[in-house]
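Dear colleagues,

I hope this message finds you well. In preparation for our joint manuscript, I am sending the V-type proton ATPase subunit F (Cryoendolithus antarcticus) sequence together with its predicted structure, so that both groups work from identical material. I would be grateful if you could confirm receipt.
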Amino acid sequence: MALPQSAYKDRQFIAVIGDEDSVTGILLAGVGHITDPPDSQKNYLVVDNKTENTTIEGAFNSYTKERKDIAIVLINQHIADKIRATVDGYGEAFPSVLEIPSKDHPYDPEKDSVMKRVRKIFGE
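The corresponding C-alpha cells are as follows:
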C-alpha cells in the first residue's frame, strides 16, 4: 500500500552524518542547508573522535523524527555502528536511512540495517 502524499510531499533535503571527508564531499555536491533563524539547524553533522555518541544519536533522532523536511539520511557505516541500536530500531519509510562507506572504513553489508531487513523479508 502506498503512503499518502502528506508523508513525503515536503521532504526535500538530504541529511548527512559522517566523517569530515564524507560530509565535505556531499556538501560540495550542493546538499548543505541551514534553516532560517532563530533556531538555525544544519542538515549535516561532522563526526570525529571527540564527538559523543549522544550527539550522534541526537542528530539522527532530529533528522528522522523532528525534521519533516528531510527525505534521506546518509550516515557513514562506522558511525552508525556507534548508535547501532537506534539505527536498527528505525523502520519508517521517510526519511530513508542509508549507510555509506567512508574513505577509511569499507562497507560491510552484514552490518547494514537495510540489508538486514531485506534478508529478513526473504527468509535468510
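For the figure legend, we might mention the following. Residues 53-66 form the longest helix (14 residues). The beta strands are 13-18, 44-46, 70-76, 96-100.

With kind regards,
E.M.
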